[in-house]
Amino acid sequence: MGGGVIGLVTAWRAAQRGLSAAVVDPEPGGGAARVAAGMLAAVSELHHGEQTLLGLNLESARRYPDFVAELTEATGHDTGYRRNGTLAVALDADDRAHLRELHALQQRSGLRSEWLSGRDCRRLEPMLAPGVRGGLRVDGDHQIDPRRLAAALVVACERAGVAFHRVWAERLTVARERACGVVTADGAEVSAGQVVLAAGSLSGRLAGVPDDVLPPVRPVKGQVVRLTMPKRYAPFLHRTVRAVVRGSSVYLVPRENGELVVGATSEELGWDTTVTAGGVYALLRDAHELVPGITELPLTETRAGLRPGSPDNAPLLGPTALAGLLLATGHYRNGVLLTPVTGDVMADVLTTGQLPEMARLFTPQRFTPAQPAGTARPASATQPAGTARPASATQPADTARPAGTAGAAALTEQPA
Questions:
Q1: Is 230 found in the same domain as 155?
Q2: Would 286 be classed as within a structural domain?
Q3: What residue numbers bound the domain in which 112 lies?
Q4: The total number of structural domains that make up the chain
Q5: Would you place residue 389 in the very low, low, confident or very high pLDDT band (cuts 50, 70, 90)?
Q6: Mean of pLDDT values over 294-312
Q7: Which helix (H) or strand (E) is 351 found in, with range?
Q8: Which of 146, 219, 304, 378 has the least C-beta neighbours within 10 A?
């Protein structure tokens, strides 16, 4: 379920394996990809405590060049993939110490990054503030334009024979203790041999999903600003530049088309997708400390989206305890990075029934409480009688569905 990049790549890869696939989503190609900056930053975004995810991130980054080449050949679309690297810089002594710790963690993890002096950083990127104290150069971190990626995946799915139902999915259909399709907002029933719930931050709100397999996914709001780099300023930045300013991360991602993406806030505010003056101010203030010349650039867009966060910030991939229901969600800030490997993993499990070795740590069942022997789930064990989740529970009561997010469905059937 879901027509964002994760649902689309799952449907595309499933169709390539000979499965009959369908995507249910009112706006395929929407979702968090409309907001994301598209940093493929497996190295520079390594965090303490998240080393388990590192292997999957690196494997997906390794697959990206071939993935993009295949997608471009299949569609003729330019995805904006660039191998221009990342420069993470420090603006004061505390930030410098933090960056040194990150460099040490990268080295212990066998990752390639280079420590630079402030002068060397400014030599690479002359627009940097004179107060930059040092930085990490990571040439292996690349970028892609998520909007172009999503558009290309829609075309790839269409050409591979994937069916699209451009409507909201309202309820999972369960029969004889097996997921077998969804009911859409217009009352239609879409049946399937296997159902993949890939609805991003809304994955935990689809009605009809038994409570014990409902994914523990929450929305994490992110606000982003887009600017234009006029040709007279070119080259404004050569690569992605990022830093931690006042304890908050800020990044500037330059595109070939002259766009500059500045992001992103991280806010635990439920389903709110309001762009706020405070959020935009904080982003531009921090970006100005990093690159003072940013205040001269035209402002072209502000937008907010919802990342699908999980309890351990890692994705949920593969079968659930409910037969026929699989998850591909909870990618948090790594959805675009993990697109290639997620498509391959889900295609493997849909065709073989088994998670590949590299994805077994990310089984959804790591969050499923063990049941005592002999306590199988009753056939109707979605919830106690009279307390069913309402059919509209893909969104909070009295609130509109967040713009650009889809509580929809990607469905697959075994070939005849």
A1: no
A2: yes
A3: 86-139
A4: 3
A5: very low
A6: 97
A7: helix 339-352
A8: 378
Radius of gyration of the CA atoms of the chain, in A: 22
Please state the separation of Cα 27 from the chain's center in Å: 17
Does 129 share its domain with 153? no
Alpha-carbon span 49 to 171, nearest angstrom: 36
The answer on 133 and 265 residing in a single domain is no
Average pLDDT over residues 232-240: 93
Whether 27 is covered by a domain: the verdict is yes
Cβ within 8 Å of residue 13, ≥6 positions away:
343, 344, 346, 347
Is the pLDDT at 211 greater than 80? The verdict is: yes
**CATH code at 161?**
3.50.50.60
pTM here is 0.89
Q: Is the pLDDT of residue 185 over 60?
A: yes
The reported pLDDT for the residue numbered 49 is 72
* Domain's final residue, options 105, 121, 139: 139
Chain mean position to CA 65: 18
Three-class SS state of 140: coil
**Which has the higher per-residue pLDDT, 46 or 149?**
149
* Edge-to-edge strands, sheet with 178-184: 169-175, 178-184, 189-191
Query: 147 Cβ partners below 8 Å, 6+ apart?
Result: 29, 33, 34
Instruction: Answer yes or no: do 208 and 332 share one domain.
Output: yes
* DSSP one-letter string for 98-136: HHHHHHHHHHHTT---EEEEHHHHHHH-TTS-TT--EEE
Contact 330, 308 (CB under 8 A): yes
More confident residue, 252 or 49: 252
Q: 6 by DSSP, 3-state: which?
A: helix
Find where tokens 């999957």 sit.
Answer: 56
Angle between helices 5-16 and 339-352 (to 10 degrees): 50
Last residue of a domain, one of 118, 139, 160: 139
DSSP 8-state symbol, 82: B
